[in-house]
Design a protein that fits this description.
The structure holds 2 protein chains of 2 kinds. Chain A is of the alpha+beta class. Chain A is built from 15 helices and 8 strands. The longest helix of chain A is centred in the N-terminal third of the chain and has 30 residues, at about 95-125. Chain A starts with 11 loop residues before the first strand and ends with a helix. The chains are: A alpha+beta, B mainly alpha. At the A-B interface, strand 1, helix 4, helix 5, helix 6 and helix 7 of A face helix 6, helix 9, helix 12, helix 13 and helix 14 of B.
């Protein structure tokens, strides 16, 4: 006897988010599943939309720095950097060297802190019951303490100024920074031992959510997402801003563009960022921290400029149009998570429900920045 | 002592003893286990765990229990009433009746069943029905996925677990738990059966839905699985059942592999020593389960299945076969130790090679980084 009719099954829609432990904020996706397999995925964004671009048009150039913190609450310094760089280039201000070095140190530490957040949250997605989270947050806390020492803030730093930084580093910063770097290296090694070399972790992440290089480029992916596909594109190298042409660092790339590669690229980037910070501390000169003869009320000459920086998530770009007022006429933010998130459907369809969660986690989205 | 009194009717007898003896002991043990897990896992995660309630946070579980008791019992409007309300009991009763055959000490055993091992395994397997009912009755898709996952997992992992224990029973020649313990008065079985012990630990972790096998309740995927719609007292029954089955499994492991109350000097030194032995041994197994939970990522459901059917089940067959050979040809028992260790080492090496090959380049780079850091 043969079975004539196939067993009939129906697909089921599962709503994930906006309140779900794995959506990293207020993101929502509707998964259409056939048993455990995802056959379709529909993302919904916009829960965090605050009209940041429009708000920025009503803030003068000093206030606008603070708003940059709020677009991406995990790589605040880097976003501030893009804003002040755009203004400085339009005004043709020469920034003192010490300020540039301080900015590089802060940017790179910020990158490590952001990646630590990723590793912790990703570990949670993969299901380590909080151990990776605990480890990563212990390390992130050291950097947060350092930032608090420098800026007096733990989340919204507002430390950069057009023409330099707000105030100088506190006494004893170099020693505490060196100590933190030492501890962070140990922390990265701990996480390598916990996740990178774990067989279950490798089985879960390898060859999951891979995206071909051509698709990655067409979607406009950037940062670790793109580098995981094997494209060594890093704005710090491709279009060096600030002082990045002075430092010796590598651009880690993956080979398959899967979830494991994205994780791995970020782990390697942390080590490279620490190298940059070390070099910057070595070369850190004395001198002023703010350009001289700046007007009290900044007015940018008419013109427009696109300034991009290498965010912890990829290319963070600001398109700034000035009509000569003390506020931007238009500020367009190109946020990396928004572009990276587009590839979610392509990466997820055909995989399991459990994979959808870690693929979303591997994009390392910040919803504040997606919705702006 | 109540366990010594006979109440006339076997069913009445078991019921009274479970009600008067097992329920209070189990509740206190479970509360202690919850506290212990939070403490142990906290330490693994570079945290302190509960600290505020009582010395070392010991009263945390009491506070939690009180909170749960006072919460509202919510039933979703679309839930299937009967299966939703019966599910906690369907989960709970099998776990209670398991205690009938478990030997705490030489004399503290409700019923010294000749089919003790069989009975315990059968009763434990029933408890999955509760999760399936809860998943089906909650009218929640996460719960449904979790319930179905739980059932699939139970079917896959029950087999390796039963066969691993059967392999031991072949050599022991009995299914009576107390008789098995008495045979271990000199040397516990774990010395002869390391392979079966490891398989038992893995399968038991899967049965208990703990990392790396916690897909039925995976927080980041199905948000707690079958229990997602439960609150208050019903939810606390799920919680109680989870830890009670952890306790039962640890007792089972201690009895069958670590010599229960008998090794060392159990029969000579009497009751307090036997109780201490039982507590220490099951505590050890529970600690291992906590340890694994704190350090392993979760597997995926298809990997879980293929691991059960393609790796674990053949391994248990090999274990059964080797034990059979030893019994039939009357070989010395150390042959078992050697064979088990060899098979175990081979399997671990094979898995490691197969997995690490996938990330050779990356892991190599990690290693060289680590070496560079050290020098």
């Amino acid at each position: 006897m043969t079975i004539e009719r196939e067993f009939e099954t129906v697909t089921m829609d599962i709503n994930v988010g906006p309140q779900h432990p794995a959506t990293h904020g207020v993101f929502r996706m509707v998964l259409t599943v056939d048993g455990e397999r995802v056959v379709d995925l529909e993302p919904y964004i916009g829960y965090m939309h605050r009209g940041g671009e429009k708000l920025s048009e009503n803030m003068d150039y000093r206030q606008g720095i603070g708003y940059q913190d709020r677009t991406c609450y995990l790589s605040q310094f880097i976003a501030e950097h893009a804003y002040v760089l755009a203004a400085e280039r339009l005004m043709e201000i020469q920034v003192p060297e010490r300020a540039e070095y301080i900015r590089v140190i802060m940017d790179e530490l910020n990158r490590v802190a952001s990646h630590m957040m990723f590793v912790g949250a990703f570990g949670q997605d993969v299901g380590t019951f909080g151990t990776a989270f605990g480890y990563a947050f212990r390390e992130r806390e050291r950097i947060q303490d350092l930032f608090e020492e420098v800026t007096g803030e733990r989340l919204m730093y507002s430390y950069y100024r057009v023409g330099g930084v707000a105030w100088d580093l506190p006494p004893g910063f170099e020693e505490s920074c060196r100590r933190v770097i030492r501890e962070l290296r140990q922390g990265i090694a701990d996480l390598d031992g916990l996740l990178t070399t774990n067989e279950v972790f490798i089985e879960r992440t390898r060859d999951v959510g891979a995206i071909p290089v051509e698709d990655a480029i067409e979607y406009g992916l950037s940062g670790p997402m793109l580098r995981a596909c094997g494209v060594p594109f890093d704005i710090r190298r491709a279009e060096p801003y600030s002082l990045y042409d002075r430092f010796d660092f590598e651009v880690p790339v993956g080979d398959r563009g899967d979830v494991f590669d994205r994780y791995w690229v970020r782990m390697q980037e942390m080590a490279q960022s620490l190298r940059i910070v070390e070099q910057a501390l070595e070369q850190l000169p004395g001198g002023p921290i703010l350009a001289e003869r700046l007007p009290r009320m900044l007015r940018l000459p008419p013109g427009e400029i696109y300034q991009r920086v290498e965010d912890a998530r990829g290319e963070y770009g600001l398109y700034l149009v000035s009509r000569g007022a003390n506020k931007p006429y238009r500020l367009k933010m190109r946020s990396p998570s928004f572009s990276n998130l587009q590839a979610l459907r392509d990466m997820t369809v055909g995989h399991y429900v459990a994979d959808a969660v870690i693929i979303l986690g591997s994009i390392d989205i910040v919803l504040c920045e997606v919705d702006r | 002592m109540i366990l010594g009194i006979w109440f006339g009717n076997p069913i009445l007898d078991a019921l009274v003893k479970i009600g008067v003896f097992i329920v209070p002991v189990m509740t206190v043990t479970v509360m202690f286990l919850i506290w212990a897990e939070r403490k142990v896992v906290g330490r693994f995660q570079a945290r302190l765990g509960p600290m505020r309630t009582g010395p070392f946070g010991l009263l945390q579980s009491v506070a939690d229990a009180l909170k749960l008791l006072t919460k509202e019992d919510v039933r979703p409007a679309l839930a299937d009433r009967w299966s939703f309300e019966l599910a906690p009991f369907a989960l709970f009763i099998p776990i209670f009746i398991t205690f009938v055959a478990l030997p705490f000490t030489q004399d503290w055993v409700l019923r010294n069943l000749d089919l003790g091992l069989f009975y315990v395994l059968a009763a434990l397997a029933l408890s999955t029905l509760g999760l399936l009912l809860a998943g089906w009755g909650s009218a929640n898709k996460y719960a449904l996925l979790g319930g179905v996952r739980a059932a699939a997992q139970m079917i896959s992992y029950e087999l390796p677990m039963v066969f691993a224990l059967l392999a031991v029973a072949v050599v022991a020649g009995t299914l009576n738990l107390n008789a098995m313990i008495e045979q271990q008065a000199r040397v516990p079985y774990v010395v002869y059966q390391p392979l079966a012990f490891v398989i038992f630990l893995i399968a038991a972790t899967a049965e208990l839905h703990r990392q790396p096998f916690d897909m039925p309740v995976a927080e980041s995927e199905v948000v707690g699985g079958p229990t997602v719609e439960y609150s208050g007292i019903r939810w606390s029954m799920f919680y109680l059942a989870e830890y009670a089955s952890l306790w039962i499994t640890s007792i089972l492991g201690a009895v069958i592999f670590l010599g229960g109350w008998a090794w060392p000097y159990g029969q000579e030194w009497g009751l307090p020593w036997q109780l201490a032995l039982g507590a220490v041994k099951s505590g050890l197994i529970i600690f291992i389960v906590f340890w694994i939970r704190a350090s392993m990522p979760r597997m995926r459901i298809d990997q879980l299945m293929s691991y059960a059917w393609k790796v674990l089940l053949p391994l248990t067959f090999v274990a059964l076969l080797v034990n059979g050979f030893v019994v039939v040809y009357d070989l010395p028992l150390w042959v078992l130790t050697v064979a088990s260790v060899l098979i175990l080492a081979g399997t671990v090496a094979g898995i490691q090679r197969a997995v690490k090959r996938k990330v050779r380049a990356q892991v190599g780079a990690v290693r060289s980084l680590a070496y560079a850091r050290r020098s």
